[in-house]
């Protein structure tokens, strides 16, 4: 029974690539130094997977910045402003596209589907002169082979690449990006030809856009693309990998009918409904790469449940055609649990980071082949049982309070005009008040800094002040550290973009607020001024979407629990004399499902969660919603009160 990993984190277990990149960008180390760190990381990843028994090991999933940018470099699709003169694209052009330089801005960055990873958006148009300008995919395949590891080279598929692109500046917004397919396929053919010549027997095309709502024209483009590539792919086993959601039925029909394709990969964690499509009909003689190990979260796999799923699939596709895989790239999870020496032992037993997920994949494959590791499965079952029964997971009072929320939409009791009149009488603000978004630069002397920040804002005649948040580390971590049901790692870093990494909290149990979290700081700051001081909170949806969330109950239930905790904080701030409260929901849209049919329900409970936080305050208390990301710098925003107040 074969095993497969869709992709693996690049940063290294202790963010080695991050530090190497930043050292290179700062001019403190050479390009060769950076390449050496990268080569060592790739080598250790390939060796780790080989030692774990993984058969289909990916290559070309490593990146110095972003895998979509790597594809842009491969295709030579460099925007003219970077003055590229042809030839192999090096660090200078590559990092200029990613980060900009002294004279031109970077390319746009946006979210990778519904993850917290961000990719560099290709800028395309009818005049782009595509050329084979980066041999990275072939070079890394050869590099692994020289180390004795035969890998599966991974490429962003041609159709998804175009669908993820945008018209370049000066190009009509209505320009049909898919019309460029015929211009990029010759380069894909060159890459495939070189990989075949180098000895590759498998190739993986990531086509994640197949999980989106695609019309018939877009689906036809997949058919056209792989029909055109068919002769070039002859002699190779070709895997089309999808992830992050169910594949719609029409897309499933298109996918499983593609020419030249021998294997299909599905996310069976977030796309469980795809199982019904597979059971309803799977192409005879084709491989099914079953993504049963979650690549998006940090919980240990329920091996018994996954084994049952795989066993049923084996009866459909055949024993020799079923491959155990991850649901998506492990890029979206932390690297290695071994480095978490301070994590509570019981909670640690419930977790699996990327390195542990590799072991889980192989253990499932061995079990299906009749070589079940009884001790490993037994230990896993004990951990699953421990998590289900642990008193630290369940808080009956919290569950009852959350359950009671379902009978109301939690709008504030009085109408908008009544509240606005009450707030104006209380606060006496001008027609166009000014405020800042929140954070100021931090120093060690907290209270002295708060006093300085307050005076600065008064000198600038700001109407509604902030205390600057000098006591906070991160807008989610700060609150999570003070809430029950959260755990934190030391090295649980996940790449957000480039060298930027985040360390998401782990929500393992029912969430509650043992004591006030921000009241001391806000009331201290209020005592320094006669002007209104704003209480500053992170909203429940943002805390949820920027955390690793428990998978044993619906996300909305966890969100409601967080909302109740923030509600308690809002009401304590009000009691302490804070009459203006800002609730940041920077990640409100980040949890939006990929499929339109699922979006209304998400928005319903997400907005409801926000309403819960402030439904109990007096008419005289003004609540601001800050929906945009706050950069930690001194940035003044002059905005109309009506545009940000939740009346």
Automatic annotation (TrEMBL):
<keyword id="KW-0862">Zinc</keyword>
<keyword id="KW-0028">Amino-acid biosynthesis</keyword>
<dbReference type="InterPro" id="IPR038071">
    <property type="entry name" value="UROD/MetE-like_sf"/>
</dbReference>
<comment type="function">
    <text>Catalyzes the transfer of a methyl group from 5-methyltetrahydrofolate to homocysteine resulting in methionine formation.</text>
</comment>
<dbReference type="GO" id="GO:0003871">
    <property type="term" value="F:5-methyltetrahydropteroyltriglutamate-homocysteine S-methyltransferase activity"/>
</dbReference>
<dbReference type="InterPro" id="IPR002629">
    <property type="entry name" value="Met_Synth_C/arc"/>
</dbReference>
<feature type="domain" description="Cobalamin-independent methionine synthase MetE C-terminal/archaeal">
    <location>
        <begin position="446"/>
        <end position="624"/>
    </location>
</feature>
<protein>
    <recommendedName>
        <fullName>5-methyltetrahydropteroyltriglutamate--homocysteine S-methyltransferase</fullName>
        <ecNumber>2.1.1.14</ecNumber>
    </recommendedName>
</protein>
<keyword id="KW-0808">Transferase</keyword>
<dbReference type="GO" id="GO:0009086">
    <property type="term" value="P:methionine biosynthetic process"/>
</dbReference>
<comment type="pathway">
    <text>Amino-acid biosynthesis; L-methionine biosynthesis via de novo pathway; L-methionine from L-homocysteine (MetE route): step 1/1.</text>
</comment>
<dbReference type="GO" id="GO:0032259">
    <property type="term" value="P:methylation"/>
</dbReference>
<keyword id="KW-0486">Methionine biosynthesis</keyword>
<keyword id="KW-0489">Methyltransferase</keyword>
<keyword id="KW-0479">Metal-binding</keyword>
<dbReference type="Pfam" id="PF08267">
    <property type="entry name" value="Meth_synt_1"/>
</dbReference>
<dbReference type="Pfam" id="PF01717">
    <property type="entry name" value="Meth_synt_2"/>
</dbReference>
<feature type="domain" description="Cobalamin-independent methionine synthase MetE N-terminal">
    <location>
        <begin position="3"/>
        <end position="315"/>
    </location>
</feature>
<comment type="similarity">
    <text>Belongs to the vitamin-B12 independent methionine synthase family.</text>
</comment>
<dbReference type="InterPro" id="IPR013215">
    <property type="entry name" value="Cbl-indep_Met_Synth_N"/>
</dbReference>
<dbReference type="GO" id="GO:0008270">
    <property type="term" value="F:zinc ion binding"/>
</dbReference>
